[in-house]
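Much of our argument rests on the idea that a fold can be written as discrete symbols. In the encoding step, the backbone of a single protein was reduced to a row of integers, each denoting a local shape. This step matters because it turns folding into a mapping between discrete strings. For completeness, the protein is quoted in full, as a sequence line and a line of structure tokens:
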Amino acid sequence: GKHWTVNEVRALICIWSDKNIQQQLEGTVRNKRIFEQVAARLQKFGIDRDWKQCRTKYKNLKHEYKSVKSAQDSGSTSRSMKFFNELDAILGHSTMEQASRSDN
């Protein structure tokens, strides 16, 4: 797909930070319908992404966040990423046990 711009990612994270969306995402693995909602909300920002693109980006961001976070936890400061703080605000509160369960 087309490369995500900073504004698009920011909008995605903004929607993702919605408590309602987070709860839905934490509670399910079959999340197509949730990402269809996310895509519809992005559309309101004038961002044209389908649910698959949203889900892939979400997974990639989550994965990248986790690897940066675990690098930091092991004392390495060399790894960082754009939007780390925004993602930390969303994902930082969830326990590791919860994270590993919802990872598949």
User: Anything to note?
Assistant: Residues 51-73 form the longest helix (23 residues). The radius of gyration is 14 Å. Residues 6-96 form one domain. The helical segments are 6-16, 19-27, 32-44, 51-73, 84-91, 96-101.
